[in-house]
């Protein structure tokens, strides 16, 4: 007798109560499909049973039409049993099933046909049907871990039913997992060898035999699964394991070094340019470390891009946590904001009419060294956020600062995750982790969010969400996102024409679009009124915006473009602002007209801050960094970061460097605009 077309393997362990019935059911299904399946054999792999499973199998053999082979395997382990059967029994194709046959047998042809017809080397199941809630959660968690660690995107790697060819069987013999996690190792190896894997949606039977006790132990099995996934990863990516250890160690050293360095400098009695020096060294240290570690060490190994992305996010979370415990170093705005928030939450004073000078009796006032005569300049959502934070920790300023910065670190991670989702279709799999790291460990981002605690992370989040909705053509939600982001800082309101124009351009009747636009605008007005209502003020005259424009109008902190305009044309500060407004409006209108939404989101602000404002702080455009890959090449991205970062240092020794960086930036932008340099990725709007 020649080798069978199919061998059905049933690994069993103490299954005497059900194995007879399962063999009858499987035999019936094989007989019904014999014209399709050809010659078949059933192999029962008794994996060290201590009951009478073997006797029960022997007793039913004569009752079945399909040949049955019983094999006793003394060493326990489902993986061991299946591999030994593959070595002992030759066949063209194989299929293994759990002893309780957890699938509808009418679905068996859909499982076997892709293998038999040569369309696939392996067929895995995607379970369909009712399953306990906890098991669905457990399966989803395992899927996420398998996807991240091993790049396996199948719904259920661990389902106890799989079909595969003799070619795939040779690969399974190389697996080393002894137990239930043979499936995961098998699929991981098969994918690495470019075998064809087909996923078949299949009706699932959770409990064919109600009297049979499930052998699933959720907590213990989950821990064993994590251990097995780690073993499989270490065997498949041995070089990556060492690289990951070095990466974690060196990034930990980076965070600890910054902590020690900061504390060392803060022991001196206000040395000259103390904060600026910390900032510069912080910038250089972080980027050198990142570029050496990630670009050099990690990219030279075989770490899957998805795993590298996860590692970067975990490392970023660790660094953000350490930096959140540091006192603000380059900016003292958080002290000022929290003091006004305490005035609102504890003393019931409106932050829009109260200044730190009105709160000198409070101990939190001692750390506010700037803006003592300035009331709140930000939007009502930010004022409400501060009110909530101080209500939670009303007695400790340190705890309030840490709480704010921890929350901001979490929001920054969410922004990076959302950015990755938006970018994955526009970047190569290898480029995505590198660029994600350049954003996550960007010195500008690290300094101004987890260290200094600027609220621009909320603006970044709102603008990123608005762009997401814009890409989904949900223009009303895009507009509302910008309204809410402007409730923190007012700049996002300048982008409101984008969703309004796109809504008007969208398909539909004039009447329907007019109604949608009217309801959206009405809802936005009501939303603004609701935001300002607790402070007893009108949304038509935002007091924070008025304070921003009047109190800081004559202050001068500019980028070189504005300095050049002021010097060459003898402009007043008011005239400079008018020039900036005209440049912004012209750029915004042009890109909206050309339907270049990604450029409309970014270039007008870059033009405004480079050429048209007398008061620029680098954290004002943190959100622009998320869109820069659509605009400039990688060198341009680095140059822009350094230019904006060093612009905040503020002492004259760096003027030549700043000017050089500025001219380099202009060259990069012009080269990109004229097509001589490619941007890092393609904009979704072309």
UniProtKB/TrEMBL annotation:
Residues 8-133 form the Glycosyltransferase 2-like domain. Keywords: Membrane, Transmembrane, Transmembrane helix. The chain crosses the membrane at residues 247-266, 278-298, 305-325, 398-419, 431-449, 477-496, 516-533, 575-593, 598-617, 623-646, 653-674. The keyword Magnesium does not apply. The keyword Translocase does not apply. It comes from the Bacteria. SUPFAM superfamilies: Nucleotide-diphospho-sugar transferases. InterPro entries: Glyco_trans_2-like, Glycosyltransferase_2, Nucleotide-diphossugar_trans. This is Glycosyltransferase 2-like domain-containing protein. It comes from Candidatus Wirthbacteria bacterium CG2_30_54_11.
């Amino acid at each position: 007798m020649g080798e069978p077309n199919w061998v059905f393997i049933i690994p069993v362990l103490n299954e005497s109560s059900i194995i007879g019935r399962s063999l009858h059911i499987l035999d019936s299904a094989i007989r019904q499909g014999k014209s399709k399946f050809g010659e078949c054999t059933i192999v029962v792999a008794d994996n060290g049973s201590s009951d009478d499973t073997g006797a029960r199998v022997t007793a039913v053999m004569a009752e079945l039409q399909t040949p049955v082979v019983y094999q006793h395997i003394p060493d326990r382990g489902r993986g061991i049993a299946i591999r030994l059967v593959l070595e002992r029994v030759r066949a063209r194709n194989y299929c293994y099933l759990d002893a309780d046959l957890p699938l509808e047998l009418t679905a068996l042809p859909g499982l076997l046909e892709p293998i038999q017809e040569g369309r696939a080397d392996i067929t895995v199941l995607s379970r369909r049907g009712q399953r306990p809630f906890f098991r669905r959660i457990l399966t989803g968690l395992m899927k996420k871990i398998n996807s991240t660690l091993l790049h396996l995107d199948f719904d259920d790697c661990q389902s106890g039913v799989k079909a595969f060819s003799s070619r795939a069987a040779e690969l399974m013999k190389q697996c080393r997992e002894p137990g239930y996690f043979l499936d995961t190792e098998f699929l991981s190896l098969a994918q690495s060898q470019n075998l064809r894997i087909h996923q078949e949606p299949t009706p699932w039977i959770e409990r064919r035999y109600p009297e049979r006790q499930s052998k699933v132990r959720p907590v213990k099995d989950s821990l064993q699964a994590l251990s097995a996934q780690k073993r499989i990863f270490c065997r498949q990516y041995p070089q990556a394991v060492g690289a990951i250890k070095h990466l974690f160690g060196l990034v930990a050293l980076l965070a600890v070094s910054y902590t020690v360095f900061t504390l060392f400098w803060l022991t001196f009695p206000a040395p000259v340019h103390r904060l600026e020096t910390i900032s510069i060294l912080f910038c250089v240290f972080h980027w050198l470390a990142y570029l050496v570690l990630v670009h050099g060490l990690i990219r030279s190994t075989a770490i899957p891009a998805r795993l590298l992305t996860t590692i970067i996010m975990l490392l970023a979370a660790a660094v953000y946590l350490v930096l959140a415990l540091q006192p603000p170093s380059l900016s003292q705005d958080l002290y000022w904001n929290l003091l006004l928030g305490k005035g609102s939450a504890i003393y019931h004073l409106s932050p829009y009419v109260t200044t730190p000078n009105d709160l000198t009796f409070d101990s939190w006032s001692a750390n506010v060294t700037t803006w003592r005569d300035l009331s709140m300049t930000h939007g009502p959502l930010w004022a409400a956020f501060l009110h909530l934070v101080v209500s939670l920790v009303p007695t400790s300023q340190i705890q309030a600062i840490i709480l704010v910065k921890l929350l901001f670190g979490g929001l920054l991670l969410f922004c990076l995750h959302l950015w990755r989702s938006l970018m994955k279709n526009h970047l190569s799999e290898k480029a995505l982790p590198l660029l994600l790291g350049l954003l996550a460990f960007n010195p500008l981002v690290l300094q101004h969010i987890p260290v200094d605690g600027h609220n621009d992370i909320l603006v970044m989040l709102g603008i990123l969400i608005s762009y997401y909705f814009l890409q989904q053509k949900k223009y009303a939600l895009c507009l509302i996102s910008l309204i809410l982001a402007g409730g923190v800082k007012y700049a996002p309101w300048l982008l409101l024409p984008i969703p309004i124009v796109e809504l008007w351009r969208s398909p539909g009747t004039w009447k329907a679009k007019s109604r949608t636009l009217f309801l959206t605008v009405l809802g936005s007005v009501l939303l603004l009124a609701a935001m300002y209502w607790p402070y007893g003020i009108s949304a038509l005259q935002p007091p924070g915006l008025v304070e921003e424009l009047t109190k800081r109008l004559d202050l001068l902190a500019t980028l070189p473009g504005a300095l050049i305009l002021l010097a060459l044309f003898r402009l007043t500060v008011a005239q400079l602002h008018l020039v900036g407004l005209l440049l912004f409006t012209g750029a915004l209108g042009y890109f909206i007209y050309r339907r270049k939404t990604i450029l409309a989101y970014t270039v007008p602000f870059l033009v405004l801050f480079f050429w048209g404002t007398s008061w620029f702080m680098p954290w004002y455009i943190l959100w622009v960094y998320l869109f820069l890959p659509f605009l400039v090449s990688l060198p341009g991205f680095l140059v822009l970061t350094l230019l904006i970062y060093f612009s905040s240092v503020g002492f004259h020794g760096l003027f030549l460097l700043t000017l050089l960086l500025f001219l380099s930036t202009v060259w990069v932008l012009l080269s990109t605009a004229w097509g001589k340099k490619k941007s890092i990725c393609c904009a979704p709007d072309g």
